[in-house]
## 1
Amino acid sequence: MVNQPLEFIHNTLAQKVMFGFDQSAQHLQEEVQHRNAKNIMVVAGERELELAETVASNIEVEVWYTDVIMHVPLDTAEKARAIAEENNVDLLVSIGGGSTTGMAKAIALTTGIPIVAVPTTYAGSEATNVWGLTEAARKTTGVDSRVLPETVIYDSRLTLSLPVELSVASGLNGMAHCVDSLWAPNANPINAALAAEGIRALSSGLPKIVRDSQNIVGRDEALYGAYLSAVSFASAGSGLHHKICHVLGGTFNLPHAETHATVLPYVLAFNAPYAPEAEARAAAAFGTDTALEGLQRLRSQTDAPKKLSDYGFTADDITEAAEITAEKLPANNPRPITVDGLKTLLTAALTGEDPAILHHEPIRA
Ligand code: NAD
């Protein structure tokens, strides 16, 4: 990139970030006072409710909304919107993982009510203006500035209860945002810098969490890396990896974080030889000779998810998944992609083969 003239358009999304261990209750109180919010609706799933109650302990809550379902089914979104409007809600506070943030975004999308997001996983939805809804087994996503949380409150105390396995899968979901950003449609030097720092922070933090789930330095690094990953992704857009995972989640109902964690090395192996700058940038961030080596070292240190067959995907699904993905490909993927190429990639991910085999696959453009 340094050897050629720079030319790009970059949008920075406006958002306040408050970061501090065990400070979420205080930060939320300050934010509510600053905004003079009167009718607050807290969105938190049943499993996150206890955490949410501690975060909201200093504020008055008008409505508690707990019907949170992954990928936000449209009927639940409509119910939540009606409740928000009936109660004249003037601030949404989402406390939970990407599914919870997603529900708050669905409410904001039609009502325009601002969101303060308090994330408890590494999904990163809190730092993007992307919404997702599902209806009749089809996931629709879109970009709208109304769904971007105005404030994000990060508190790694809230992640101490996230089981190690889920922490690893979720952290690798963040890693996927970083790596895919490097060749996504709007990749530019600014989002590449954020992605590289995200790769460094996540690959430093996740092994610490695996060694000790209560390690605050590791938890902070992972949360910080997850934020950077999402800022980078929001700016760079969806690359090949996200297009594949979107189909696996939306059509085959595979679990979000685990799917991202499993598919990433295959997309990296597939694209890396055709994207030398991105590859070198990621390798440097991992501190290894090649990006794939860095990712695989991290995956082995963290005992990461290995094969899609563990999550309900079967050989019979491959053709359909490849064909649907092929309809939605990013125009500028560094390596030409065919349905056959996608089938090869998905077959390797299904069974957990060594991703390096994809380096040698013949390409039929
Ligand atoms: P999730 O929110 O469904 O959480 C996974 C599980 O972990 C849930 O059972 C939840 O209750 C539990 N959990 C969450 N935090 C916990 C904690 N601190 N301690 C213990 N348990 C906890 O999963 P996710 O991976 O965070 O989010 C996935 C969803 O987010 C998907 O729908 C995905 O499409 C969406 N997403 C959206 C964007 C975007 O930019 N719009 C980005 C990433 C993910």
## 2
Amino acid sequence: MTHLIRSFEEYQAAYRRSVADPEGFWGEVASDFQWRRPWDRVLEWNFTEPAVKWFAGGKLNVTENCLDRHLAERGDQTAILWEPNDPEEHYRKFTYRELHAKVSQFAHVLRNNGVRKGDRVCLYLPMVPELAIAVLACARMGAIHSVVFGGFSAQSIADRIRDAGCSLVITADGGFRGSKEIPLKSVIDDALVQCPSVRKTIVLTRSRSPVSMIKGRDAWWEDEIKKVETMGNPDFPAEEMDAEDPLFILYTSGSTGKPKGVVHTGAGYLVYAHYTFVNVFGYQPGEVHFCTADIGWITGHSYILYGPLAAGATTLLFEGVPTWPDAGRLWEVVQKYRVNILYTAPTAIRSLMGFGLEYVQGKDLSSLTKLGSVGEPINEEAWHWFDEHIGGGRCPIVDTWWQTETGGIMISPIAGVTPTKPGYATLPLPGVQPLLVDENGREIEGNGVSGNLCLRFPWPGMIRTTYGDHERCRLNYFATYPNLYFTGDGCLRDQDGYYRITGRVDDVLNVSGHRIGTAEVENAINLYTDVVESAVVGYPHGVKGQGIYAYVVCINHQRDEDLTRRDIAATVTRAIGAIARPDKIQFVTGLPKTRSGKIMRRILRKIAEGETTDLGDTSTLLDPAVVEEIRAGVLVTKGG
Ligand code: WT7
């Protein structure tokens, strides 16, 4: 790897170069890749449409770069290590050669089932190696994958399948997460009632719980594999793809409407995932990388699969949860596989902290060399606990700020290179040009300032469009401030020029590192028979970072309140999934609104945070008395 940054001076030099000559910089980075045809132009862009093209005219296949090109040098090295949910079950591993063969085989399965280049395929699977295989098989044959996290409801999946027009769904009978079994196929059956575009489903056997199988539509994964075996397991040559052909769609929540399908394209995304993986984590050949995210989120796409595999690393896939069978599970896994790089979320750290040190003690964590955090601001207490008790004080911690839309890490220390500061994502990576703006879009220069975080120049991993609705992409990210990409995050730049992300400034919540739109939760709550209207805000939660607080106006006040709360929570779970269940529901007779009918969330947020005196200016309220009532009835939220 020729672009590994080894000192702070090298970082500064790379950064300067990336700003002075972005095309030269990224062109050099991308030349490490295997191209079928070189690009004509490194970058063409404008942020007004927006239209961004990286490596236009170039041809390649992402899996050739993640698999084929490693075969000669490290074909027998482990590519994927898999730790099952149940520690008693045997682990599995795949060398690069084996993974290559499996991906090739499953690409045939996809083709045999009518999938063609450019078709959309929905994946709703547990965290098993077959998920990685299916993702890569899509990439190999040029199909666009849309992975949906296994915790989403049938309704959410149906929305995503319809939006993308998926023709095939890959799922499993059921999946295991901790002590729970998730009936994946049954959820898919419910979803497909609303999805006429789906012609086929392929069902992996995992839990072997009984499932319905519909003739002509549903086929078993294992049977489909046998058919390819009887064909003699022919190789599946990687499809030649244009640099800007879409690689995948990943749905994420915004402040309005239904989740949008963020589209990433092949070349730029892979170059960026690879570059950031090796540099941020200071990846050394032979290291074992363990990212605890689910492949259903961007973190899993970029740092379980594409980044590590492009680098020829050994990546660990974990099916289970950190707290089962007990709160020592992650440390067990680190010990078992001699993990070197551990990349996890603050919410997991806080939750494990709460169980006490006895689950860490006695575990051999000496293999760890680097630690990473992602998904939300990491509080200092969690940072120090992670540093001291997991890293033994010897592992650099990288607090990595980025988003589904950025494709890869944007602001982060480079492990062992950038001096860290707890709570700070520190400095932009090469190629990343952040700026802070005020409400009017005026740049706030200098240090020791706060504002809204924007980016003024494209980077290879950036979002290209929102699937099926380019205007939505423009409005969401490029219209708030002309000629800038707006992240939706608030940010502080301190005296040293270090960046500290302070949280979303839009109506988006971050619950346990998962992004949830308040409007989505409100719409789900409003489905409940007795609900007239609702308003959802976040409040500080000790483990989740943010909890979901719902103010709900109901008819039928005579009903049992606790039962109604549970019914509403069940309604939300049914509509979105358990991750969107409100933590607190307060029944109110009205919501604070301006004369024009706009809900004043600022006030509701303050009340939910436990602020009782200073609610700011309430003079524009239609009915100030309603605030008094809400304040009197507030559910205590201090400390989560
Ligand atoms: C939002 C993006 C990127 C993978 C996981 C989440 C917040 C993310 C950090 C961090 C403070 C962070 C931001 C961002 N966020 N990382 N290190 N420090 N906040 O992806 O679901 O697209 O959410 O997560 O608010 O906008 P996502």
